[in-house]
Amino acid sequence: MATIPRNSRLSKIKTVSKPEQLALFGGQPAFSSRVHVGRPNIGDKARLYERLDDILERRWLTNGGPYVQAFETRVREMCNVKECVATCNGSIALEILIRALGMTGEVIVPAYTFVATAHALQWQEIKPVFCDVDPKTHNLDPARVEELITPRTTGIIGVHLWGNPCDVEALEEIAKRRGLKLMFDAAHAFACSHKGKMIGGFGEAETFSFHATKFFNTFEGGAIVTNDSELAEKMRLMRNFGFKSKDKVIYLGSNGKMTEICAAMGLTSFDAMDDFIASGARNYEHYSKHIARIPGLSVVPHDTSEACNYHYMVVQVDEALAGLSRDDLVKVLEAENVLARRYFYPGVHRMEPYLSLQPMAGLVLPVTEELSRTIMVLPTGDAFSVEEIDRLVNVVEEAVAHAPAVRAELERQSNA
């Protein structure tokens, strides 16, 4: 096993020639500390501290201060939309938009998404009707959407999964023809485009998440963007208890405001966004090149002709070709201190309360079920180097090369 000096996270390069050298069998882990999929991008800390100091000196910490206003302007300009309503997180953004659009009854959503998409409906006693996705794009299949529309259907929520846009035109045509509201959960798709148009201006409105694990973060935060100024004004009331002015409440509302400190982090993320995207693109290309040599593994592609944030590194595992399942490889990597994730396992329809409320949903979700079994997400981002990618890919390659021994060891450990 060759060795070279390395950073604190990795002590040496691991070149496996025998399965016993994998950490699963007791070998030294490739990474000396845990490597998470969603490690935050930070940007220029000195510039962030300057902004935080200014906020503290102003003593204007929330309630739509100058940093939130500046952040909303930057988001609006980047998305080329008329309105941006910044919120405390992406879930509240979904809930406010759903309510502002007047959705009731049933709303069609993918089951292959983060659970917040469905929760934002169920929380308001709206039934999420789970729809299957396209096996290539992993986004809503418009043909399946059409089949699920009933007299109780009031809307459709598309999710731009992995930053790859939905079939926007097909969904807009269905919504218009059937008289339905259409919105998009764009939590993965900030700074991405569709046919040359930035994500943000499709449907009635779109929501973003700026959670710490996103490539672009505000610590915790979200936003709703739209070209409908009347809708935006309603949502501004809703995020601030319905206050129109100091003592005048004119609408039912909640507290969904973004703080000045979170907005300062957002502006700092804007400063470094090009660098974040460049490192993500570098990692995507490097992963793609090297994973291509491993039987049974394929990278879920991005359309590189469009703007893309390259936030997610998504790999699909064909067990018949690899000799190992997705779950097997996740366990192999976990032993090496790489916490690869099974997105979006097991599918929202198999989570509560939906499993109890709609126990047969999986019968009409074959693609969702397949993706839930075969997709894993690997670490990437500004803090993950090409050398580390080489190390991770080498582990996976060797595990596949010694698949029978790996399967036997995993079975032994499960029975121990």
Topology (elements, then pairings):
Layout: E1 35-36, H1 45-58, H2 66-79, E2 83-87, H3 90-100, E3 106-110, H4 116-122, E4 127-131, H5 142-148, E5 153-159, H6 168-178, E6 181-185, E7 193-194, E8 197-198, E9 205-209, E10 222-226, H7 229-238, E11 243-245, E12 248-249, H8 260-291, E13 297-299, E14 313-317, H9 319-322, H10 326-335, E15 338-339, H11 354-357, H12 366-374, E16 375-378, H13 386-401, H14 403-415
Parallel strand pairs: 1-15, 3-4, 3-5, 5-6, 6-9
Antiparallel strand pairs: 2-10, 7-8, 9-10, 11-12, 13-14, 14-16
Helix pairs in contact: 1-8, 2-8, 3-4, 8-13
* Sheet with the most strands: spatial strand order: 2-10-9-6-5-3-4
Which percent band covers the strand fraction? Answer: 5-15%
Percent helix, as a range, is 25-40%
Terminal CA distance reads 29 Å
CATH architecture of the largest domain: 3-Layer(aba) Sandwich
Class derived from helix and strand content: alpha/beta
Low-confidence stretches: 1-13
What does the average pLDDT come to?
Answer: 95
